[in-house]
Specification:
By secondary structure, the protein is α/β, with parallel strands linked by helices. It has a single domain, classed as Rossmann fold (3-Layer(aba) Sandwich). The protein has 9 helices and 7 strands.
Length: about 240
Amino acid sequence: MSKRALITGGSGGIGAAICKKLAADGLQVIIHTHRNQMKAQALADSISAAGGDATVSAFDVTDAQATALALQDLLEAGPIQILVNNAGIHDDAVFPALSARQWQDVIDVSLNGFFHVTQALLMPMIRTRWGRIINITSVAALTGNRGQVNYSAAKGALHAATKSLALEVASRGITVNAVAPGIIATEMSADAFATDAIAQIVPMKRAGRPEEVADLVGFLVSEQAAYISGQIISINGAMT
């Protein structure tokens, strides 16, 4: 029986590419969404039409109780051994103008969402003595970015959590890594960077493709990556 993989924020640009890649690699994919259920179902249908195995699960990762109930239902079918924490939002403003709501909302999805989902899945994963946890972060967590103190803080905290959790589960056959994309061509980034700006920022003179991020994630969740853990792996076209 193939392993089950949950991808939070699975209907977005990077998330959808990861879902397609993992399904193509033979995994049972669970596409998480919160507000984009129609989009997530269309993705699941396209994966199924291509011969893959995909279902949709809708819940709010910032809501501890709702997340626990949704994951309890999913776990009735067995452990989820692969988790990609991809759900995230950005709500940008320079720091003096950053509202408490903007700070809290961004922290809630990326950081508290990581906690709510990962903790619920961890003990069933540990009992199988095999697992892969991938946290999708950002180059902003490594270099900083003007107007994104909240986003950088949330993703930077995930880097620290990645390293600590990797130490806790290293002897249980579970790896924990972070993937930090740079500028990737998605709807989320389309309004943030003009083409000429990308050429100035990125040494490779182009945005990355969601499929390139997905290929890296596909490797990290494979058997071949069993000795890679606790790492923050950048994929950013040589940005430093």
